[in-house]
Amino acid sequence: MHVNAKKIAIGGLLLALTEVCIALGSVIETNTLFLLAAASYFVGFLIRETDIRTGAVFYAAGVLLGILISPNKLYVISYAAMGFYIFAIELIWKRIGQLQGERNRAALFWGAKYVIFNLLFLPMVFGFREVFFPGTVTPAMLLGIMAAGQAGLFVYDRAYEYAQAQIWSRMRKIL
Predict the structure, then answer these.
(1) Domain ranges, residue 46
(2) Whole-number Å distance between alpha carbons of 15 and 69
């Protein structure tokens, strides 16, 4: 397998930044969600810079290294879910781009995003309720949590698109 040195260097740099963001999420508690989201964005940056296979290896390395380094393992699990979401939407983006006769690719892409998110989010809400929500959770609270999750996905996804278009497009010129 031939991989050029520039791709390896970019991957190593992004992996280091990923781990720094995960570790800082444990230290700076007020910015944990922001830092974990930033760490997961690096998966998408590398996929767009290289390919899906390299992105999958990068994602796996980020999770394994996070388990070894990070003081808070729950943040690594959160990073793993966010990184998997980014990996999955990048994979779907490439697959939808290969479709020939599909007219409404944007709606198909957004529908796939919400399906992937809900496959990750809803089992955590219902399956690990005691971990995330101490005390009793009423059905109305569950509906509010699910609605907030959908709104959070919209914000997270828009922030990722902005980071790809504005931040990474400028950073990649430097690299």
Answers:
(1) 5-174
(2) 12
